[in-house]
Specification:
67 residues, 5 strands, 0% helix, 37% strand
Length: 67
Amino acid sequence: MKAQNGDRLVCEGVRLGAPRRVGVIVELHHADGTPPYTVRWENDSHESVVFPGPDARLEPADHDSDR
């Protein structure tokens, strides 16, 4: 998994009834885009350092829109 700032991290709930968590990657800790990431969660705007598990996927931001 390799990310860029602005990508969305989606973590599916792994238990019955657990909600999906969605956040925006606001900081990379490695230049090559590998975890961990600092993520700002959409539901409460709190930030945390995340090592994504097998329940997570990345949704790329539109990084070409700045051109």
